[in-house]
Here is the input.
Amino acid sequence: MPVSYEGFWNILADKSISPSSISKLAGISTSTLKRLRQNEEVSLSTLCKLCSFLDCDLGKLVCYIPGEEPVTNKKVSTFNIGSRRFLGNKYKLLSFITRVVDSHCEDVRSIADIFSGTGSVASAFTDRQVITNDLMYSSYLCNYACFGSQKYRKSKLLGIIARYNALYSSEENYMTENFADTYFSREDCSKIGYIREDIESRFSDNEINQRERAILIMSLIYAMDRIANTCGHYDAFIRNSVFDRHLIMSLPDVGNSNNPGNECFNEDANELVKRIYADLVYIDPPYNSRQYCDTYHLLENVARWEKPQVYGVARKMDRSKMKSLYCTRSAESAFKDLIKNISARYILFSYNNMSQKGDDRSNARISDTVIYNVFNEKGRLTVFEEEYRPFTTGKSDIKDNAERLFLCECCHD
Ligand SMILES: C[S@@+](CC[C@H](N)C(=O)[O-])C[C@H]1O[C@@H](n2cnc3c(N)ncnc32)[C@H](O)[C@@H]1O
Here is the structure.
């Protein structure tokens, strides 16, 4: 920023007030203090708080420096939902899914994607009202960034991201203390920790709104995933790796005039369906025993930013409250309960034909017999099939894998 806060620091020195006491007494976060030190953007409400606390005029704290140009936004690129490596991402199956909906369902004005993951499927239906839901907070935030109806200021976000990209950080923080030179280099960990803290303090200072916060966190999650020292999931990192890619954030390509009726939830789908109605409910639960909270623990940790203790070589936090029944032996009873409680005209269910083909980890948890019985009780069932190459742990040789769509036209009592 072409500004200097030298006046502010001089007043603190004159009055013998330390940075930590002004932080406590005036309620200013440490990352806001850091921005004041680096002559970066600080909200007007923060400056007014300081004026009131120090009993002085705004001009005593800050002055404009002619000739100093702000960091340029031009180099920030954009990305879309489909660019994330995410188990079960349906991005490549969208034409199959939309073809089935468009040719076999009538007058669908609202769609609930209740195991939404990246939100790929919801993104194909933004011409209607969309409801998204996922157990993972990281998925919820990305969904809210994409489908939330609150307006966001694109040029403001471009400016913030450009500044993050230009930043060099060497501070010690939660990320360096727990993850240095594992999934990311020490330097990138320091930068990730600084940025995540900064997003939170901009939000608590009312400098950015809830949707802008979600968009910045989504941008950070995707940037981390692009450079992570893994083979696609966070069960382990590659040892003795050279960290030759560095964190560069871009802006997700998300709409600014989304349907005002859109809603995003972060809860168990089995509970949510008892309260919502949609013309079509799309169901895409985990197929096998791989828990998403295990596979993506680090991204979930950064999204939540509760800074928990982490354990073991993979540096995972406690995930006992994040486990999905759909990855366990209770998957079939959870599925029966879910379908029974759905209020919709159509239910569209994605499930592959892997129930007995892969290794134990990749075997599907819900048998075909249960799927057919449950849907036959709920309404009229049609099944569509398309060949598809699945993601596995790489050890099993799976042939003839097909992705299937079960379309149930629900009967009403
Ligand atoms: C197969 S993925 C969905 C992929 C998604 N359709 C996409 O294209 O990205 C399954 C998702 O269900 C979520 N999930 C698992 N159990 C859940 C539950 N009980 N309620 C809501 N979401 C759940 C997981 O966190 C994961 O994101």
